[in-house]
């Protein structure tokens, strides 16, 4: 009886260890939040009615910023504080370049869209609590 109990205990440990090694997929709520963010960004870009020239400039700006962010992440000899400061500087630069591409009407639409998005987030946070 003791051998059977010990054998079942060892088998259960192996099963738990095997399950711990598998990757877990994102939960449906996490996936939908990511997808919703991408849809909102796409919706905002459509509502701004960007010209082909503006779209091209935005794309090159995004690619430049992505390259800078990737280069920053590749640095191993940087502290967390320095990384956050540099990421904030990159975001500010990206925002400034985006504002330079947009005209006054488009900037107003973007600000309105951001305001609505913030209000929506506040509502979701209140529901989660």
UniProtKB/TrEMBL annotation:
Segments for region (Disordered): 21-43, 56-75, 108-129
Ribosomal protein as UniProt keyword: no
Keyword terms: Signal
Lineage: superkingdom: Bacteria
Basic residues bias: start-end ranges: 115-129
Compositionally biased region (Polar residues): 21-32
Signal peptide (UniProt feature, chain positions): 1-20
The name this protein goes by in its record: LTXXQ motif family protein
Lineage: Bacteria, Pseudomonadati, Bacteroidota, Chitinophagia, Chitinophagales
């Amino acid at each position: 009886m003791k051998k059977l109990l010990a054998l079942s205990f060892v088998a259960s440990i192996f099963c738990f260890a095997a399950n711990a090694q598998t990757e877990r997929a994102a939960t449906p709520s996490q996936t939908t939040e990511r997808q919703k963010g991408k849809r909102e960004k796409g919706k905002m870009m459509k509502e701004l009615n960007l010209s082909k020239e503006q779209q091209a400039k935005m794309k090159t700006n995004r690619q430049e910023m992505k390259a800078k962010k990737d280069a920053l992440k590749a640095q191993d000899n940087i502290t967390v504080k320095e990384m956050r400061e540099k990421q904030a500087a990159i975001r500010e630069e990206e925002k400034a370049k985006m504002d330079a591409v947009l005209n006054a009407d488009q900037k107003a639409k973007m600000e309105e869209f951001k305001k609505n998005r913030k209000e929506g987030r506040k509502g979701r946070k209140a529901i989660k609590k």
